[in-house]
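Example complex used in Figure S2.
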Amino acid sequence: MNTFRIGWRNIWRNGKRTWITVVAIALNTAILIVSYALMQGMMVDMVDNATRMVVGDAQVHAPGYRLDQSMYKCIKEPEKIVDAARKAGIQAAARSYGFGLISSGSKSAGGIFWGVDPAAEQKSFELSKHMLIGEYLSAEPGKNVVLGQKLAKSLHADVGSEIVAVVQAADGSLGNELFTVCGILKVAGEKIDRGGAIIHRADFEELFVSGGRVHEIALNAWGKLSAEEVAGVASVAAGDDEVKTWKQLMPLLFEMVKMFDVAIFIFGLVFFLAAGLGVMNTMLMATYERIREFGIQKAMGSTPWRIMKDVSIEAFVMAVFSTLIGAAIGVAAGLYFQEYGINLEAMARETITFSGIAFDPLWRATLSGKIVMLPVFVMWIICVVAALYPAGKAARLNPVRAMTHV
Amino acid sequence: MEAIVQLEDVAKDYGQGDLTVHALRGVDLSIQKGDLAAVAGPSGSGKTTLLNVIGGLDTPSAGRVWVDGKEVTQMSRSKLSKLRLNRIGFVFQAYNLIPVLTAYENAEYVLMLQGMPAKERREKVMDLLKQVGLEGMDKRFPRELSGGQQQRVAIARAIAAQPALVLADEPTANVDSKTAAALLDLMVRLNEERQATFLFSTHDQNVMKRSKRLILLKDGMIDHNGKPENIEH
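Predicted assembly (639 residues):
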C-alpha cells in the first residue's frame, strides 16, 4: 500500500472541490513564476544597462577624484592596471574627462568631454551600439563627437552638424576646437544624455593639453567574474588609486536590487497566504467529511502521528499536482515574455530611465531554474503547513466519538 | 484456562448530574483464551460500551480492565494504540472499511501499520482473503462489494495481525440471514483453526446459540454468564 497513492485517491473524493483548490494553487504558482521572472528580468536589465553600457563591473580613479572631478587628479599608472586586467581576461577602457562649453549655431550648453579609446570602448562596453542616429567614433582621431540625446536636442545639433568646444586646458590656456557630430546616443543615463560629448582620446589630449592624463579606467568581465573579483584584480595593480565596484559606485541601484528581493518576498507572501488558506479550507472540509474514517483508523491502531502524516501527505500530493500544472503554465508564459517581452513604448515614448540608468522599453523576463523551483518548493511547504491544523484535529479525535459521528 | 480479558467492577457513566446514563454498572467478567463469547441484551443494555471499554476505545468511569495480561485502564493513548494494533482486532456492524482502499488494502492496513514487509504482507493478505472466501476480489473497492463481502473483508482485516482478541460489534446485524450464517460459520472456523478469541455483541439468536459462552447484559449489569443452552428463555 503506497501512502502517496492513497493520498491521491483521497484528494479526488470530492473532485469539484479539489479542482478549485488545484486551480487556485496552480494559478498562484504560475503568477509567482511569471512575476518573479519579469522582476528578475528588470533587475538583470537594470544592472546590465548600468554595468555593460558604461560603468562596468568596477572602476579605478585617483583618490578623491569622484568627489572633486579635477583635471589634475589622475590615475598614476593606467597602463599597468589595463595590462593586469587584460591578463585576467577583463576588458578595460581608459577615459579622460574635462568640462567645457559646447556651441552649435546660436545655441550653447555646458558639457563633459569624454576622451575615449573607441576600440577599447567597443570591446569593453555596449555604449557604442546604443546609437539613436549616426555612428560611433572611428578608431582613428578625426575631430568627431558623439553627443548625448538631450545635449544634441538643446544644441539643435544633428549628425553632420559642427559644434565648437571651448574649454580651459590643463596648462591654463583656453582650448577651442571644431568637431563634427558623427552620432547621437539613445537615452543612456542622465549624465551622458544631458552633457555627454564623447571624443577620441587623441582629440581630447589636443583640446585639453591633458598630457595623457587618465581619470577613469572602467573594467568589464562580461559576467565571467564577479564585480568583487574584478575589483580584486585591479586593486593589485592600482596601488594608492581607488578601486570601486559598481555596487559602490551606484549605491542607489544596488539598494534597489536588494529592495526588489524584498518586494518579491512580500508579493510572494500574499500569494502563498492565499494558497495556504485555500489548502487549509480544503483539508479541513476533507477532514470533517472523514471523521468516521479517522475513528476507524484509530481503532485499528493508527497513532495520531500516523494520521497527521497521512493528512499531510494528502496535502503534499495535491500541492505537487497543482504546482506541476502551475509550473508548466508559468514556464510557458515566462518563456514567452523572455522571448518577446512586454513593449512599454506605448507608455513611454523614449527609453525609460530610473536613477540615471536607462531601461530598454522592451521589458523581458529572465527565467531560471531557481525562479521556477523556488515558488514550487515554497508552495509545497505552505500546503503541508496549512494541512497541519486539520491534520492535528484529525489526529486528536476520540475514536468512539469519531466512529459515531454523523 | 488463561484469561485474555478480565474486568473488575467496571462502570461507565455518560453525561452529568440528573442526565447521567449508567451504561455499565459494576461489571466483573473474565473471557478465556480461545473463547467464542457473545454479549447479548436489549438496546441500551451496554453491549457496545462493554466492547469499547475492553478494546481501549473508551475509558471506564470506575474499575479495572486487563487485556492479554496488561491493564488497559492505566495505559496512555499511544500504548492503547499499540495494544489495539498488535493484540485486538475489530469488526463493526457497519463494516467500516476505508472507501478509498481496495479489499486487499483494507485487509492489509493493520499489517502495514505494524511495519510488516510488503512481500510478507502480500502473501498473508492473499491467503486471508482466500480463507474468508474473497479470492479474486482483492482489487475491488468496498462500493463494489456486497454487504456480506464487505464484512468478510472487515473480518480479514480484524484477524490479519493474528490478534489475541477479536471484538465484533453486531457483525451480522446489517446482512441477510443467509449471509449472517455464512459469516458466523467463518468466524467459528477461524476461532477453531486459529484459536482466535472472539467476543461478539449481538441480537442474533443464531450467534447466541453458536457461541461457546453467552453473557446477557441488562441495564449495564451482567444478568447471565454461561453456556447458551443454560439460558432460561
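Residues 63-240 of chain A form one domain. The longest strand of chain A covers residues 91-104.
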